[in-house]
Amino acid sequence: MIPVTVTPETAALGIALGLVFSLVCYLTTNLSPGGMITPGWLALTLVTDAGRAALMIGVTALTFFATKVLQRQVILYGKRLFAAVVLCAVVLQATVMLALQHEFPLLYTTQTLGFIVPGLIAYQLIRQPLAATAISTTAVTLGTYVVLVAGLLLGALPTG
């Protein structure tokens, strides 16, 4: 799919759609699909730049494994676990950004939320069963993506 530039209004609607689908998923299955804002953000990223979404999945995997290693050395639970996972994701994402900034200058323009989302997903991967989290995150993201793309293709949502 050709990358599309979405307006702030479309981005807000994409996040809102993801929130609604995430809430439905959580209420029906008691599984968090990688955090409440994650599916909407992932769907928007897939619409605008699938390469960035793939990079985010890689950072999520690195964050998950780094946190598992860290848990062997430090007692992490509750808010400490959440803070450690998100901080780890931010550090890894910043490292990747600095490493790729010269090669791909447009890869990181104003994607602040993209620094937090890998941590949110990794946190849920640690707290819930791995496969269930991956399936629920994928399903809710794809549902949001389909509705978002349909709205864009039908002209119901503005593009930039």
From TrEMBL:
Keywords: Membrane, Transmembrane, Transmembrane helix
Any single biological process term in GO: capsule polysaccharide biosynthetic process
Protein name: Capsule biosynthesis protein capC
Transmembrane portions of the chain: 12-29, 41-69, 81-100, 106-126, 138-157
Claim: Transmembrane helix is one of the keywords in the record: yes
A Pfam family the protein falls into: Caps_synth_CapC
One CC-aspect GO term: membrane
Domain of life: Bacteria
